[in-house]
Structures are given as structure tokens and as C-alpha cells.
# Entry
Amino acid sequence: MPTDLGSLLVQLFSGLSRAMMLFLVSSGLSLIFGVMNILNFAHAALWLLGGYITFSVYTALVEHYGVSFVFLVPAVVAGTLALFAIGLAIERTLIRRMYGRELPEQLLLTFALILIIGDLIRLFWGVQNRRIILPIEPLPILGTFMNPYLFVIMVIGLVVAGFLWWFLARTRTGKIVRAAVYSRDMVSALGIRIPIIYGLVYAMGVAIAALSAGVFLPIMPIGLGLDMDLIVQCFAVVVIGGFGSIVGTFVASLLVGIVYSFSILIWPGGALAIIFIILVAVLIWRPWGLFGTEMRF
Amino acid sequence: MENYEKSHGWDGLVKILERSMGRRDFIVTSAAAGLLALTPRFVRGATNEPYRIGVLLPSTGAGANYSERPIKGLPLIAAEINKRGGLLGKHPIELIFRDTQTKPDVGAREARSLILNEKVKTVIGSWSSAVAMAIQEIVHEYKVLHLAATSNSSKIVNENYTPYTFMFGPNSQMQSSATVVAVSRMIKEKGWKNYVTLGLDYEWGRDAQRVFVEELAKVSPEIELKKELWAKLGETDFTSYITAIMGLKPDFVFGAIAGRDNETFLQQAKAAGFFQRVVYPGVFLPVTELMQQRKTLPRGIVGINRCPFFAHMDQPLMKKYVDLYQAQFGKEDYPDDFACMYFDSLNGLDQAVTKAGTVETEAVRKAMTGATLDTCRGKLTFRDCNNQLDCASYLGEVVDVPEYPFPIFDLKTLIVVEGRDIWLPADCEDVRKLQKKRA
Amino acid sequence: MINGLYRKLDLSIRVLLVLAILFLLLPLLPGRFPLVVGTEILILGLLALSFNMIYGYMGQISFGHAAFFGLGAYTSALILRPLIEAGQLGYLGFFLALAAAVPISALGALIVGFFCVRLTGIYFAILSLAFGELLFYIVFSWYSFTKGDDGIQGLMPPFVFKSGVIYYYFTFAVVGITALLLRKISRSPFGYTLRMLRDNQNRTAFLGIDIRRVMLLNFVIAGAFAGLAGALWGPFQRSVSPALLGWHQSGVPVFMTLIGGAAHFAGPLVGSIIYTALNAYVTQFTSYWPLTIGLIILCVVLFLPGGLLSVIDIWVHRGRKADT
# Structure
């Protein structure tokens, strides 16, 4: 096991970037469940769709105007906005009918969405893996090299976390959203239309996921079936952190990311087992998660 | 893919589905959508009794990317054979495709469906070895031929052997041993002392790594395995592994990574400066990867694959495959390793049937056992104790060449490791000891 | 008189009778594939029935139920393989394999259930999912014992059971008996305690009933029956793989129960017929099977709330309440 400080610090950075990746994908899931009590099983599938849309927009821009980092920005924005709109549409037509229905029925519906979205992706984009290629040079740091784009991801993770915090704590809409978590009826009684709030929250959660997919494109190819692998990790992080708590999701992502990163050095095959052990331990000791509200239980 | 073109009519329907609508509209449109989804799934033959072949490959999920070219190309080869009337000039080939969904149970059920409903006499596939082995049980029970290529666990021809399965590509053990040949040379040349392995934690990865480590220890006993790293299948973030390996500073790294994870790893490793600090010989680079990663693949690394068209363009059959494929799909696209091996399996079946003089399965099976066939890689023979084709593994340096729009292995330094030189067990008697009994 | 008797029976029994007749007559259909599908329907139907003990009767969702199915499958596989290898496969070995699966999966359910019954609602669901994934991971990784994600191949039922027809009727008999057993349990005082627990945990506790014990007992019974289903599955498919324990497989009994109707005893069985037949035949018509199945599930969830049997129940309009 490498023990020089440089290597350890770089390992820590890689853990942080993994943490931010997890946070970006899972925060929307946590938000949606926390506010609407809906387990959005299709979250990773919508994430994937956002990635594909970003890919298409970027590729179109590059074909016309040549390769440039800058084009990633409108592409990511396009993906985010597209999924915001799709999220609104899905909430309005399908999710809305699931309020008050049993948990397994929600899951059945969102699982059907996974199948449908996955196949629509196959229909429109085909089976080949897709990738974005940005000219990234490795960054010499601390006696070794690192991918500088990881810092971009970390920054974006922090920005999104900050945005969510600001939105929920400082804006009027955000406060209404938090109030709706505690008492749907009271918020209704105040004359605020809950369906609009729910639509907004669902669309936001899904849009954040799409944003993260677009942001990750420069460092990994996307393809069919990627959502299946990801959704289980998302659930683990959201559960460990506590449903509905963005802080919890953030902390859980950090925990999972860093533990994973260092466990590679200590117990090579066991990284995944460690995550599950943490998950099971949390569920047994504190089922509502590290930062979840006991009321939810 | 044939279906993709047909289903562009989906566009309009899908837009309708996305609007919110009333219950009746939804039902009507869903029913209409269901009807339109009814697409004919097979290439129809002529009036003579057709010879039906089931093709079991994934068209959804992670394996679809690597099964696309075989699926696109096999009908072309079948059409060529059908031009002269089919097998023996009188049995036109009908191909029926089924998605294995990369699930062993689904593979087994689809195999049964093909055999019992569609009356296929031969099954071609699959991508995942676990699925292939589940299918082996079915073909063994129903006495149906099974031609395998992409799925290449050595267990398919050794432990799980059935006389009905024929392997048309180098198996996982052969590939690992071939890598040992190349790497041991490099160890001598460069005086390497230690290494690290990084593998995907599933059967193929574990197997490939284990064989490499064991065989390398025999040939280069002085080399030290510093650490074994294992990543989960479907890993999207290799950063921690990359930084860990760079921290360990090994002389070289052996990777047992395939599929999309392979591309993910290569992309992330390159951006992290991995290839500037560590040598990474023997990465699995089928033509699929060479084409898809043409812009990012680090040049100069040593890769391995199973049936690269560029190494055998002098072979008439390989040239024919490329010509047929490109006539349909354009000059930019080439048949990858998997496509070529599956094309060989169909042609091989043709030759075995001709040799047997009948399409009757037992006769064809006997004709194929131990047979020497014309393939795109030359005349190759089946090992009669386990139906493993004596085919080569190809190791080379990734270089750009003017002939092709993507990098290939440098033909000047290409290492071709023949199957019979390295397959294990070396003795047919030992092979038979491995083969399990069935009820 | 028969008419009068028929009227007395509730919907589920009627459905079960009709289904029993249909299942008995299935081999009359042309070809051997319907037998394959029929056997799958029966075995997965048992899995779904066992799941509904936890969901419909106890009111909790187990998302890791397939783990016990998989444990049963692997138990029977690990017993059968050495026998086949030694050429000693006989009726005794086969029934031993089936019988051994029950206590093993019951033990697994005991351990998992011990922790799960301390929670309710979504937390019960997620913990069961986590344990299911943990068990999957153990089977996946323990190469030396379970052969990892290779799976175990070369399984086969002995002698006459090799025949598709015989194995089908054998499965029908086993599933039929266990279904009747489950029905008996659901109609026993224990069963009614479960329903009471489902409807109001607090009141049940106030009656002095040890909730945890009752829930755990039910969980173990459900796990045991799932294990039996798994033990039938391995020899039928001729192989087992770790996927049998994963969340994908765990979702199957959930879907079946919801499609058929959780509020009716026969619901999971009806759901199994629909879901299994759909999966088995849809690929003959289209390669876009996820889209097709996804749309069908969507329609079922939106337009058949409570499942097919609930809708039939309302249609038939006898004014009967759900029989659970």
C-alpha cells in the first residue's frame, strides 16, 4: 500500500470526485422522495436519457463548429432543460396518479418507466456506446498525475449542493417545499397548490440528474444498461444519508466515496461489500439514515 | 440493424405517447404501438425445407454494443450461402434472432423456444459466458448444435464440455497464455521486476487474471506480483484504482477488463496520465474498440484480440467478409472480431454439412468434430477432445495507418500466438478429466 | 346444487378451480414449449404466493425475497451436482435436494427476517433489499463454493422426471399442495393475526400479541416456500446462477402479485400466468420487448388498480369484499 503523502492525497481526491459523482446523481432522488414520498426508481434511467441528449447536442455543435470545451456548456444546459421538461411531463401524466398509492405500485410504475425509457434510448440512439472527447491533459500534481476534470466535477458538485441548500433554505419556493415535507395539508390550506410544487420538485430532481450525466460525459462513455448499475448505488447513498435530507445525501456520498477509494488499497475485492455493510449497519442501527427525520419512520 | 430502419415509423407514435391523454386514447395508441412492434424477425428462405438457425445474442444492455456487428452481418453471410440454394444447395438458411438479455435463465428459455417452436437445428451465440453455459445444457439435452464465439470462458470447452458445442475463437485461457508469451518477452527486454493486476470482479476477469498470474510465474519466476486490484463489473469510476496503481509504481500492469468498462478505464487512465507512468500490456482491444476509441486510444500500447480482419486481408474469406459487410454498411465500417468469428461459424457449418452430405445433426456434428475448416484466418482444425478451434491470439502495438480510418495493431511487430502452442490442459487426457458428467 | 355451492365460494377459490383445470389440461396444447412455460408459471407462481404472505397478508414489502428463492435453488444444485458427477442421481437424491432447500432458505429468512421485522414500511422494504443484495453478493463472490457468476450447470431431474410432461405435473402437484397449505395458513388464527397486524399494529400489540415473533414466523414460512420454489427451478432450467438472488428477480413476485391482485389469494398465481407468458412469448413478435412489457405494466398499474382479480371482482359485482 502506497504510504507517501502525495499518493494518499491523490487517493483522497479520487474519493472526493467519486463522492461528488454519487451526490450529483442521488440528490434528486433524495429530494423527490423527501418531498413527495415517491421512490423514483426510474431516476437513473432519466439520468441516462439526459446524458444521451447532452451527447447529441454536443456532437451536433462540434460537427458544425469544431471541437471545443465551450460547447459542453450549452449541451449540458440543453440536457438539463430537456429533462426538466420531460420530468414535468412524466410527473403530470404518470407520477401524479401514484400519490396515495402503495409503495410497490409506485415501484411497478417507475420500473415500467425504466423499461420504456431504456428501449426508447435504444430506438433513437442505437446500441453503440457513446462518448464525448475533450482534449484533457493530465495534471502533474503532488509527484504524480491527476485528471484535472475531476476538479471540475468536485466544483460542480459543491455548486449544486450549494444551490440546493440556498434554494431550500433561502428562497420562498424552497421554504414552501420544505413545509410540504412536514405537512402537505397545511401548505394546501394556505392556498398553495401542492401539485405545482410536486411537479417542480420532480422536474428539478430529474434535471439535476441529467446535469450530472452531461457533466460526466467527458470522463466516461455511456451506453445501454448503465442505469441499472447505478440505481442500486444511488439507493444506498440516499438511504444511508436519510431520505429527504440533502445534507444527508452529501455526507453519505462523501462517506461512500472516500471509504470506497481507500478500501481498494486495503481490501481489494471488498469495496462493494463494504458499502453494503455500511448500508445494512445504518438500517439496523438508524433506519431513517444519518440525517433523516425520525418523523419519516 | 434491420429493425432500426423499420422502426423509424415509431417516431410519430412515440411523440403521441408523450402527450398527456385520456384513457381511451392511451389504450388505442398502446394497442396500435403494440401492433406496429410486430416486426418479422427472420430472413425468409425459399420453398425447399429451410435450415433454421437460432442466434442468441444480447440486443439490450451492455453486451449489445459488441453483438451489433454479428447481428447485422450474419444475414449477409446466410444470403451468400442461400444464393446457391442454401446448405447442400437445397436447404436455405433461416436466421432467427433472440435477445438473451444477458441473463442465463432467459438464454435457456429462448434456446428452448427456438428449439421447440422454431425447430432450429443449430444455435449461434452468446456474449456472456454464463449465458452460454446455461444454453449448453439445453443444446446437450435436445441434441442441437451450438456454435460459440464471443462467450469464451475456457469452462465452455473444458468443464462444461458438450460434444454439441464448438468454439470458434480463442478461449479465455488461451488469450491469457498468449499475453504471457508477449509479456515474458517484454520482461526480458526491459528487466521488469514487479507488477500489479487490475481485474473486473466476475468469472471472466477472475479466470483471465488467474491464468495469467499462474502461467507468467512458470515462464518468468523472478517477477513479483505486488498487488491484485479488483473492480466491480459495471464500474463507472476507475479513478481510485488508477491513482492507487500509480502510487504503487509497478513496472507493468495486467488488466482483465473488457466491454464498456474497458473503454471507461482507458479513457480515465489516459486523462490521468496513467500511460505516462505505467506500462499496460495486453489490454483486450477487439476491432470494436479500435474503431470506437479511435480518437482516444493511446498509441503504442500493446493490445490483444481474437480475430482482427487487418491481420488476414490476404485470406480470401476475410476479404469476402469485409467486402460483403461494407457493401451493406459502408466503407467506414468493418466487421469486428466477433462478427468475423460468427461468420466463420456459419461458413464452418456449411462446410461440415457439405462434408457430411446431410443436414442431419448427428452426422454434421461428427463431421465437424476434429475437422479442418476454411476460415477467415486460414485453414484451422478443431481439437477433437473439446471442440476448441486451433486459432490464434493476436498481440500488437496500437498504431495509426493510412489504409484505415482507425488505429490497428502494427503488422510489422504483430505477435501471433497459435492455439495449440498454449492451450491448457496440454494433454487431451487431462482435458477429459476436467469434463464434468451429466445425468 | 352445484350452482349453489359455486356461489358460496369466494372469487379466489373459483379462480383456483378454473386454473387447476386449465393447468391439468395444458399438455393438450400442441408442442412442448407450453409445458416449459407452464412449469415456469407454476414455480414462479409459488414464489409470488410466498411473497404475498408478507405483502398481502402482513402488509410489508420484501424486496429481497428472491434471495430465498436463490438459496433454495443453490441448495438443490449443490446437492444434485455431486450426485450427478458420481452417477448416483436417483429419486432419493432429488427429493433430498428439494427437502433440504426448505430449511436452508428458512434459516436465511430467519436471519434476514430477524432484522427486518424490527422495521416497517419503506425501511422494511429497503433493509430486505439490502440483505437480498448482500446474499447475492456472497453467492456471486464465493467462487470456491458456488462457482461465482459462472453459476452451476449440469442439473437434471432423475429418470422419469426428465420428461417435460412428468416434471410439469410433478411441479403442479407440489405447487398445488403448497398453495393449499398456504391457503390453510392464511385462514388459520395465525393468518388472521397477520391481517390484524397489517391493518393496525398498535391494536394487535395491545392484545398482548408478540408482533415481532408473529412477523418473523410468517417471514420464515414465506422464505421456506420461496426456497422450495427455487429448488424446483434449478433442475428445471438445468442450471442456476447468482442472478436468481438479485433485485431483478426480487421484483418478479412483486410485479406478479400486483398484476394479479394482492388482495386475493389467487392473485399472485394469476399474475404469474400473465407475466411469465408475456415474457416467454413477446420475443417471438418483437425485439422491442422492454418497450412492450413496460407499456403493458404501465397500463396495468394505471387502469387496473388492485390487479386483475380486483377488477374482475368489481365487474362480477357480487358485492363481496376482498377475501384477505
Confidence is low (pLDDT under 50) at residues 1-30, 32-41 of chain B. Residues 173-305+393-422 of chain B form a domain with the Rossmann fold fold (CATH 3.40.50.2300). Chain B has three domains: 2-36, 51-170+313-391, 173-305+393-422. Chain B touches chain A through 53 residues (CB under 8 Å).
